[in-house]
Design brief:
The chain is of the alpha+beta class. The chain contains 19 helices and nine strands. Strands 1, 2, 3, 4, 5, 6, 7, 8 and 9 form a nine-stranded antiparallel sheet that branches. A hairpin with a 2-residue loop joins strand 3 and strand 4. The longest helix has 18 residues. 38% of the residues are buried.
Length: 451
Amino acid sequence: MGIPELIEQLAAPEMEARQAAGAALVAAGAAAVGPVLAVLCNEASPVYWGDPANVLRRIGDPAFDPVLDVILSTGTEEVRRRARWTFGGIEVSDLTRYAEVLAHPDSSIRDTAAFVLQNAGSAALPMAPALVPLLTDADEDVCQRAVWAFAGIGPGVIPLLRRVRRSTAPQRRQALTALAEVGGWDALDAADQRLVERLIAVKLRDEKPASMHLCGGWYALPTKDQGAVLEAFGLSDAMTVTMRLGESAWNSDHHGGTLGHEHGRCSRTYVSPVLDGWTLVFGDPPGSAHSASAETESGRRQYIRRRCAELSGVFGAAHWYGESCGDGWTAWCLAEHGRIIRCYDVFEPEDQVGNGHAAEDGYRLPHEDGGFPEGWIDGIDVSDTAALQERYEQVKRDFAIPDVCHAADIAGRLSVDPSELDERTSVLGHGVLALTACGRRYGTPRGALHI
């Protein structure tokens, strides 16, 4: 079967036929590149574009320059998008082919080449020096990609980045970010660690409270005794940090800045300064994190309830709050003098403790529909967010339907709402990042943090 017939077979309804055609085209090598590339660029072709793209990737070296030429062509943006995706996975015999285009005038090619080296891991270590200029690239996305590429290549780049830090290269500043992304605090040499500590000290002098992005769980304790809080959570090696840095660590750990670190989410904890008389503890303690890896979330909920009861026996009261920025999850647990008085989780409303709380008065719980009448959105284009919100607010007013409460609302009434911190919030002392038992044993996660 010739190349034209094989390409035609890429549109066959049977997967086996398409796979066989793809394998035969790959075996044809350089001779198939032009015809397959033409199909990739033909937006009217019945062949799904992903099939010729994968054939070109597997053909490897002979496809490299022709696909690169398409990215630089005057074709449609859709064609260039297909070519960029193809270019990012060509199975070259030597990674230096990608390293050689890191200085290409087209920023999308620089970005894609760096992405390939990022995914190549330690195999790309010999090419790492070619990534250094990208740390100060004119395109901010390429700068960020270079940092991620260094992290993807791994600890082997640390000596290179430390040399950049000690040089007069224009990339000195960005190299510090890359070092933190590669190996966290431990990747910095002693001079850079002292530099970061001095920067933190300077910023602490006039730092003002600011709204925090809430995603994860935190405890609130009515105490000014930071030492007692550290002891109660089994924390050590406390490092004084700005509130911004503490928030950054919490969010980084929770949102995936812990790649390659099995205990990244439970290795460190941010303990806030005293805020309006309350100390807040952000993080996922080992007991909670390890419970969450059980078959269900019941282990986590039981752990949180047990800890709240224990902490309230020490501090008189203890609250735990949980919010998600992605899926609508919200929860809270309140304890006083060693006893749980209220627990609620929107995903497990049947597992509540207590029959409501005064802080919930005037609200409806997130799992309750609130009594919206049938057909209340009739005539509204649900894709029109503004119109839908306007109708929602109008129906709430007409039928006296209360607002939904979330953990941050309850925290604002009972302790401190971290999302509402501002210059009116009273602050005593400074926050710290401290190690949990997992942090002492396994170290902390990599990742550059905001100071």
